[in-house]
Structure formats: structure tokens, C-alpha cells
Amino acid sequence: MKLCVIPIDNRPVCYNLIKEISRIDKTIELYIPPRHLLGSLTKNADIVGLYSWLCKLPEVDSIVVSLDTIAYGGLIPSRRCPDSFSDIKSRMLDFKEILETKKAKIYAVSSIMRISNNNCNEEEKEYWDKYGKYIFEYSYTKHQYTGKLGLESPVKRLIPPDILQDYTQTRLRNFKINQMYLEWKKEGFFETLVFSKDDCAEFGFNVIEANHLERMGADVITGADEIPLSLISRAIGTKLSVAPIYTEPDSIDLISNYEDVPIKKSVENQLTFAGVNIESPEKADIILVVNNFKDHQGEIVMKKPTELFSGEFIPPDKPYMIADVRNANGADNNFVKSLLKNFRYDGFYGYSAWNTSANSLGSLICCAKVKFGAVNYNEDAFKKVQMVRLLDDWAYQANIRQQISEPSNIQPLMKPFEEKVSKLLDMKIKNEYFYPWNRLFEIEVSDELF
Questions:
Q1: Which of 402, 424, 427 is nearest to 413 (CA)?
Q2: Which of 363, 416, 361, 408 is nearest to 385 (CA)?
Q3: What distances in angstroms separate CA 364 from CA 54, 251, 367, 377, one per listed residue?
Q4: For residue 365, with 0-12 CB atoms within 10 Å meaning exposed, 13-18 middle and 19 or more buried, which class applies?
Q5: Angle at CA 80, nearest 5°, toward 79 and 86?
Q6: How far apart, in whole angstroms, are the C-alpha atoms of residue 251 and residue 335?
Q7: Domain ranges for the chain
Q8: pTM to 2 decimals?
Q9: Per residue in 236-291, pLDDT tens?
Q10: Nearest alpha-carbon partner for 70 in 57, 51, 86, 83
Q11: Can you say whether residue 73 is alpha, beta or left, with left for phi > 0 and alpha for psi between -120 and 50 degrees?
């Protein structure tokens, strides 16, 4: 299969992970832009460079594309981009014309602009450091009070009118661009078009927009960064059936942080979107073990603890994979301790505890589906994906990140974890660790395997 992917940005989970998972099947020929053409935390994607690269692309079967990369310069720039609707529309019409010459199936995602519930402007407009929480609360309560006569959020008066106007106009521009994509879908341009709800809550302008798009016939899914991987899952077409089982079966109706649907629904949505059939454990090809939360999802970095796994993890007696979502962004140390004790490599299809529940699920399912359908299986590549996830999601996010206050040399701290992962996967590990966006939120695990 010849596959082209234009990622959301250049983060390891958005760029490297695509390359690493595709290598699990040596028959997948991946075409992905040079990393320097993609956006970062402070730099927009080089759209002209991406056009040039795409024009030279040979014939491929499928193209998976994050439309935000072309429209705005990336996911983060989609919230900051000052360009007008007409400018972005013109840019996307040029992009559409290039894609039409490729004669490939187009699998695309566009984000519904998120509303971050904090006063941090690292990924938002400058005014977010003063008014972010107010804007979130205004959005949340305005939606919550819809239809309740005379009710208006009192927080509105705390937001300067010009800032509120700028924010709502940016949202409207992005929404109109999404409506344009939906018209292209109705024309038959996309094989698959999905709109992502990034960092979502139960109420908000983003939920209102998602509901509007769904009424217009759109497909909407909670998540963001993992969706290109989910689209790869759809594009490869392997038939796979999965049975989800939960470590906390009485808590499957609880909602994850940054999401607006219960964890059971999130799991089922991710499986279905990836083109996977949901079956009973007896009939399924693979068991999906979900280490879900009992009362509420924890968040290690934000010092929001939750009750950790207290049982004994025994691998199922058939192929299995693990979504460790008890915390948002970081493994459950109790669960991993039991996993290390009772691990069975035979029939193992992957582990993930990366960021939100949707992030973990979408990336995990893609890895499992590529491995399951591999025509020419590359075990070293599969082991590398697992090594990176364990050292990032478990060693770094759940442990080492709590010991440091700024980007620093973590090589000595990682050593004990490397030894455990090396033994678990029966592989040699010689890694270096980088901070690609010069912040603690993500690290890049670099080894000499490839």
C-alpha cells in the first residue's frame, strides 16, 4: 500500500509515531513531508513548501491529511491565525486542486476549535493568560443556559468586549471553513471527512458547533492528535474485531477529562471510527483491556490523584492490547507494576497511556491494526513503538516529569526504566531524550534502531 500522510504538526506523537507504526508492515510505503515543513509551537507550517512537496508526490493509494496544517499552518495556529475567511478559502481551493490531480482516496480531519480551561496562552492567543478561564466559563454557561429565559453568564462582564468579539469572530471563521469542507464531502471529494472535538467539555461553543455540523450530516469525534492515525487505520482496510473489557466495569459511564462522552462511548467510537468491529471476547480477534478510572480520571501533572489499579493484571488467554486511561497523560504505576510482573509478549498488540483517553485509544488501535494485518511483519518496529510508549507514557510522564521543573538531562533518571523495558520486550535500548518544543509536556525518544 502506498500511503501519504500530512500530519497536524511536528511533535513526536504526530510525526514520529506515524512513521514508526507504518514500519510495522514493510509493505506500507509511507510518504510524509520533511519534518521542517510542518508547524511547531512557535512556527507555522511552510504551506508553500508543502504545496511543492505534494506536487512532486508520486501516485499513491490514499492521502491522510490534517486540513488545519494547510488552512492555518497547524492545529495550534488554527486558534491564532489572523487570516480572513476569504484568504483561507482561497488557500484551501488551491490545495483541493492539487489533491484532485492525485486521484487518491482522501481521508481528512479538521478540528473544531477548542476552548482551553486555563489562563495559559502558550497555545492560544495572547489574551488567554488573563481571560482564558473567563472565556471558557462564558462559553460553558452560555450553552448550559440556552433556552432558559433571562439567564446570561455574569462572567461576560469580566471579558473586554473587543477580546470577546475577536474570539467569537475567530470561532465563526473556523466554523465557516468547516462548513465549506462539508460541502466538499457532499460533492464526493473526501473518502472520509471527520471533525475533531479537541479538549472538550460537556457544554461550550465547540459542542454547539459540533452539534450543528452533525445535523448537517458531518461525522464528529472527540479527540485530535490521534485522528490521523485513526484515519490510517481506516485507509489500510484490514478486517479486525475487538472486544473491550474494563478493569473497572462499574465505572464505564464516567467521562474522561477533556472529553464529553463516557469512557465506554469513547472506546466504542474510537474502534468504530478506525474501521474495527466490536465483538464479544469469545468472537474477537483481539481483547482491548481498558484500565479505566473508578471515580474520576486522574491527572498526575496537575496533582489530581485518582484511586489507582488495585487488582492483579492477568493477560487474557488470547491476543490483547492495553489502553491505560486511569490518568490523563501518564500511566497508572500500580497497573504497570502488575503488567511487568505478569506480562506475556505472545499475542501482545500494544500499550498506550498517552495524554487523553482518545489519544491513547486511537494510536493504540492503529498500531494493533497495522500489526494484525501486516503482510510483511517487522517485529523490531513493533517493539520500538512499545518501547517509546512505555518510556514516554510510564517512565517520563508518570514518574520522571514529577521530579524536574524544567527541560534537563534525564538520561540518568531514565536508566532504571530502560532496564525494565529492555527486559520486558527482550530488546537492547540505547536512547537519547530531547524536548522538541522546549517544554516539559512532551519528550522525544530517539534510538538507533532505524
A1: 402
A2: 363
A3: 28, 21, 5, 17
A4: buried
A5: 90
A6: 17
A7: 2-233, 238-446
A8: 0.94
A9: 989 999 999 999 999 999 999 988 889 999 999 999 999 999 999 999 999 999 99
A10: 51
A11: left
